[in-house]
């Protein structure tokens, strides 16, 4: 349980980055599978695989339509839509049929009341507003305490990362369009109100611009691209005041305040790895999302930027010896760990990064026999994030 949490959290740190880069991958031969036709395949000349022209096993109590499947070199990719998921919110999932059974066995599908508190847009402590120079954003309606949960949502659409390259691009686009059309009209407008940055096919553009990576759904090795329209409101900041995590069993994403937020402040998440120097941040954000980073941390004076970049370089140089906090073999010294916590604090890496540095200090003190300092830093780690659990 906490193992998969850790995996998911580490994945989160990179998710936006990876997706920005991988968003445009396509390819593979394909063959259409027509749902419901049970004829034997007679076209297996030319060495093409004699795939079953069958609808895979599916449970009509869960899925509202027979799955639509497309096949290619990488196997089959099928579209499943549930209208009743999460108390009628609904969800469309594109995935290999082999894992559909695992997905529908998740508590998200089987435990009736599990998602009662999720997906409540009316209770949110923020509202959408135009932010000068940044387009639409989310602004706090009231003070939000550090560690408070801000959102809890299921995705409207999930696409297995391995399925994205299976059908030919035009088949995938048609499948993605159908994924939206099979949702209710309210959900469709929720999806379509999201911003697309790159142009081209509207749905694909929205997916490429707003995807989160969601790991461990239906098996440790499975990663999905997931769209949470409500969470797409959050703009990027290199020093965000929210951090987020996924729970694969409930298929929810939660965001938590990484520091105390006052009424009127914009709520932000980071789309990229926080431990990046400015030039890298500009490059990755422009390549992945098409915008020039203008967050306060990118817009600082040249002198401040130099200092921050030096901090980041230093952090990166200590990280190999101290960064893998779950690795019992690491021999991070008290001095190194204390330098890490100092750097994280001065770089305002609020939330899980700061907490990981404190935890590394706690472990270093424990190794050196200083139990009192170990406890103190363990507590600091605990106080600084809600999305990782630390056991000394
Ligand atoms: C498959 O091909 C054979 C030989 O051409 C033909 O007799 C048979 O009817 C075909 N079967 C189907 C299901 O099309
Ligand atoms: C389904 O889940 C089981 C148990 O976690 C796992 O062993 C299996 O590999 C999963 N199936 C697929 C196709 O990933």
Automatic annotation (TrEMBL):
<feature type="signal peptide">
    <location>
        <begin position="1"/>
        <end position="22"/>
    </location>
</feature>
<dbReference type="InterPro" id="IPR001214">
    <property type="entry name" value="SET_dom"/>
</dbReference>
<dbReference type="Pfam" id="PF00856">
    <property type="entry name" value="SET"/>
</dbReference>
<protein>
    <recommendedName>
        <fullName>SET domain-containing protein</fullName>
    </recommendedName>
</protein>
<feature type="domain" description="SET">
    <location>
        <begin position="124"/>
        <end position="272"/>
    </location>
</feature>
<dbReference type="InterPro" id="IPR053185">
    <property type="entry name" value="SET_domain_protein"/>
</dbReference>
<keyword id="KW-0732">Signal</keyword>
<dbReference type="InterPro" id="IPR046341">
    <property type="entry name" value="SET_dom_sf"/>
</dbReference>
């Amino acid at each position: 349980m906490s193992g998969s949490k850790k995996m998911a959290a580490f994945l989160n740190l990179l998710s936006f980055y990876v997706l920005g880069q991988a968003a445009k991958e396509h390819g593979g031969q394909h063959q259409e599978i027509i749902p419901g036709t049970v004829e034997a395949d007679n076209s297996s000349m030319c060495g093409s695989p004699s795939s079953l022209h069958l609808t895979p096993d599916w449970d009509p109590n869960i899925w509202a339509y027979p799955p639509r499947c497309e096949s290619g070199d990488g196997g089959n990719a099928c579209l499943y839509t549930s209208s009743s998921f999460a108390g009628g919110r609904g969800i469309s999932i594109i995935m290999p049929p082999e894992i559909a059974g695992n997905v529908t066995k998740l508590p998200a599908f089987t435990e009736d009341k599990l998602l009662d508190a999720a997906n409540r847009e009316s209770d949110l402590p923020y509202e959408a507003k135009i932010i000068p120079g940044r387009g639409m954003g989310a602004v706090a309606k009231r003070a939000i305490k550090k560690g408070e949960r801000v959102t809890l949502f299921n995705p409207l659409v999930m696409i297995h990362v391995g399925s994205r390259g299976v059908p030919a691009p035009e088949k995938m686009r048609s499948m993605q369009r159908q994924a939206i059309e099979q949702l209710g009209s309210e959900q469709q407008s929720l999806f379509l109100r999201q911003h697309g940055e790159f142009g081209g096919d509207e749905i694909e553009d929205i997916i490429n611009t707003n995807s989160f990576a969601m790991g461990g759904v239906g098996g440790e090795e499975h990663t999905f691209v997931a769209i949470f329209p409500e969470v797409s409101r959050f703009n990027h900041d290199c020093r965000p005041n929210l951090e987020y995590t996924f729970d694969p069993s409930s298929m929810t994403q939660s965001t938590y305040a990484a520091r105390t937020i006052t009424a009127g402040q914009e709520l932000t998440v980071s789309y990229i790895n926080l431990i990046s120097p400015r030039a890298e941040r500009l490059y990755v954000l422009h390549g992945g999302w098409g915008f020039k980073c203008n967050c306060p941390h990118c817009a600082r004076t040249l002198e401040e930027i130099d200092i921050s970049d030096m901090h980041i370089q230093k952090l990166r140089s200590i990280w190999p010896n101290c960064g893998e906090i779950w690795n019992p073999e690491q021999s991070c010294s008290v001095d190194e760990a204390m330098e890490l916590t100092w750097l994280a604090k001065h770089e305002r890496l609020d939330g899980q990064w700061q907490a990981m540095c404190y935890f590394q200090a706690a472990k270093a003190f424990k190794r050196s026999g200083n139990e009192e300092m170990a406890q103190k830093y363990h507590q600091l780690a605990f106080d600084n994030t809600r999305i990782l659990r630390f056991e000394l």
